[in-house]
Amino acid sequence: MKKRVVTATVFNQSGVLNRVTGLFTKRQFNIESITVGHTETEGVSKMTFVVSVEDDRQIEQLIKQLNKQIDVLKVSDITDQAIVARELALIKVLSNGQTRAEISGIVEPFRATIIDISRDSVTVQVTGDTEKVEAMIDLLKPYGIKELARTGLTAFTRGSQKSVTDLKQYTLLK
Predict the structure, then answer these.
(1) Range 84-150 classified under CATH 3.40.50.720
(2) Which of 68, 95, 111, 165 lies most in the core, judged by the most C-beta atoms within 10 Å?
(3) Any idea where the domains of the chain sit in the sequence?
(4) Distance between alpha carbon 48 and the CA centroid of its chain, in Å?
């Protein structure tokens, strides 16, 4: 199985996420992660999916099906392109006065931050590529991870890329 990163630019309409993820379900894709957020254009959102596929034909078929959706403006498989990709993780680690200094020593080289401290735990925020987040989690596991939340990967291609700026013109083309 290969992991693929697929982005979809969509109109921010009620039910669009359900319709898009429904296509993944129909094609029996497992979504490893999904992020959705507003873009620079009002009323438009960007979805980033990380999916596992057996071969390239599967991803090509999925992209064709996604492009047929009414609220979908653009779909891209950006896996093999130069991309900027980040993930955020919040990690609540068991800690006491003695282990806080050790945990701070682990956090610093990762350019992560301690964002909350209580009597029995610290919460660490780390952002970066998936490998960096995984490495931070692995180093904190021996202390006891009390809670973990991850956003999943969000990404786009590097450099100047054309974006949908004239939605009226694009809507007429659909």
Answers:
(1) no
(2) 95
(3) 2-80, 84-150
(4) 6
